[in-house]
Each structure stands twice: as structure tokens, then as C-alpha cells.
Amino acid sequence: MSATTSTTRPGGRSARVRAAVHRAVVEFLAEHPAEALTLPLIATRAGVHPTTLYRRWGSVAELMADVASSRFSGDIVVPDTGSLREDLRRWASDVATDLADPDVLAIMRAAIGSGPDGGCACTADRHAQLTAILDRERSRGGTAPETAHAADVLLGPLYYRAIFAGQPADPSWTTELVDTLLK
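C-alpha cells predicted for TetR/AcrR family transcriptional regulator:
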């Protein structure tokens, strides 16, 4: 008897379609407001039939959550300097730099505006990175705040400033955020 094997081909047509659709979304958002985004427009831009998008994602909200999850997964390396303060300073600075990218902001705004899962897609990996930094400090015998509190103090202001205020976060400000967290 043979074991059941997966028929998913990560490098196959499915991956090419996903990449083309994601690229089409990013390009569309660079040229148009998020409110104008529709699955048929993205399908045309990606060179696929609209039913492909409806079958795979079902809605603009689900597509935007997938694009955001893909974009915000693994793009920032979690620093390991041996110091919680320095790890958080470097990480917060990297997040601020990422949030200053106009394409990133367009994806975030569209994902957040598409439904409740959109915001989670933009922050899930950041929370995982933050948890890794804090857990590593605890494993070294140090004390670290809980992830939820650290996210409120660090990510809340960073995301607010980027998304709503349109102000870049300079390095001294991100350092102040970390210092406030670790008081």
C-alpha cells in the first residue's frame, strides 16, 4: 500500500499564478486607490481568468490578506546582539524602515481596509519576531515584557505613525520607544 502524497507543486503553475496575482496587486496599488481594486481587474492584469481568483481567494479581502501575509513574512531578520535593548532597537528600526516604503504602505492600507483579517495579516509576522526576541531574552535568564505589551508600546506607534500620520520614524524615536518599553 502506498502512502498518500501531496499533489501541490510549490514551483508549478499554482505558484506562478500566485506570484503573478501578487505582483498585479502591488502594481495596481502603486497606480490606483485601494477602493478601485477588484478581482476581475487584478485577474486581467495578472493574465489569468477571474474565476481563478474567485476560486482561490473568493474575495478582495482574502486576496489582500494573502498578499499582506506573503509580504510581511520573513522580510525582517530578528537580531541577536546578546542584549534585549539592542535587539529591540535594531528590530524597531528595521520595522520603521520597512514601513517607510510606499509600496508597503499601499499594501497595508488596502489589507486593513479589506476586512478584519487584513490587519492581522500585516502584523502576524511582526508579533512572531517580537515573541522570538522576548523569548530568547527569557531563555538567557533575563526578564522581558509580554509580547502583547511590547507590541502595544512598539508596533502601535510605529504603525500609527506610518499608516495614519504619514510620518517617517527616525532612529532616535524608535530608540525612545524601546527605552520606554524597558523602563
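The chain is about 70% helix and 0% strand.
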